[in-house]
Amino acid sequence: MAPEKPAREPSSGVQSLQRAFNLLERLADVGGEASLSELAAASGLPLPTIHRLIRTLVTLGYVRQNTNRRYALGARLIRLGETASRQFGTWARPLLAELVDEVGETANLAVLESDEVVYVAQVPSRHSMRMFTEVGRRVLPHGTGVGKAILSRLPVDDVRALLARTGMPAFTPNTITDPEELIRQLRRIAEQGYALDESEQELGVRCVAVPLDGGPTLAAVSVSGPQGRLTKQAVSRIVPVVRRIADQLSQQAAHPMTA
C-alpha cells in the first residue's frame, strides 16, 4: 500500500473521529500493540495529536496501556467486532455453509471498504489442510479473487484511480502489478462472471470468486483451497455453484429484512 501522507491538524470533530479510527486500524495492522512513536510513523500524525487521541480512547476502553507503556486494542472493541460479525454472519453464513457442503472448500464473503477488501464472513472447509483467512482481514484488491471480482463491477476510470491510490505491490511472483494488464483481466472477468486468484495472494492457493449484485456495498463470495484439490477441472464444476450462492446472497443483501 502506498504510504499515507502526513495528516494536518484536525479542523473539526469529524476529522478527529476519523483520526481516532485510523489509529485503531493502525494498531490492528501491526498485530494489536504499538508505541506512540510507531503509531506516529505509521499514521503520519504528530505525537501530541496521537497522544491526545490515544488518551481519549484509553478512557473510553477502546485502547489500553500495557505495563511496558505500549498501547493495545481494548476489550471494549470485542463487543463491537462480535456484533458486526454476527450481523453479516446471520444472513451470509448459512449460504456459505451450503457452499462448503457442496464444494468441500473454504467459503468467504468480502466487501470493498476504503480501497481495501475486507473479509466479513467465513465458513472453513472440513479438510485438515484448508485455507484460512481470518474475518476482519484487510487486503488490497488487485491480488485476490474477491478483489478482482469486485473491481470488475467498477468503471475503468474508478479502477485506475483506486490503483493509483493503493499501488500494486507483488505478494507472490504471480501477482498482477501492471494496471493495464489487470484492467484487461477485469474485462474478461466481467464477461465470464467470475474471477480466479492463481496463487496471486499466496503461493499454492487457488480461489474462485463471484461478485454480488444489488447489495448496499460492493461484495463478492469466494471458494479457496490448495491448487492440488482446487484443480482447473474442479473449477469448472465449482463456478456454477458459487454463482448460485452469489445470486442468493445478492437477493438477501438487497432485501435484508426479508432474508
TrEMBL record:
Is Transport a UniProt keyword of this protein?
Answer: no
Q: Name one GO molecular function term.
A: DNA binding
Q: Domain of life here?
A: Bacteria
This protein's name? Glycerol operon regulatory protein
* Residues covered by the IclR-ED domain: 76-255
What are the protein's UniProt keywords?
Answer: DNA-binding, Glycerol metabolism, Transcription, Transcription regulation
Q: Which InterPro entries match?
A: GAF-like_dom_sf (IPR029016), HTH_MetabolicPath_Reg (IPR050707), Tscrpt_reg_IclR_C (IPR014757), Tscrpt_reg_IclR_N (IPR005471), WH-like_DNA-bd_sf (IPR036388), WH_DNA-bd_sf (IPR036390)
One Pfam family name is HTH_IclR
What does the function comment of this entry state? May be an activator protein for the gylABX operon.
- Biological processes per GO annotation: glycerol metabolic process; negative regulation of DNA-templated transcription
Under PANTHER family, the record lists: HELIX-TURN-HELIX TRANSCRIPTIONAL REGULATOR, ICLR FAMILY, HTH-TYPE TRANSCRIPTIONAL REPRESSOR ALLR
Residue intervals of the HTH iclR-type domain: 14-75
The keyword Transcription regulation appears for this protein: yes
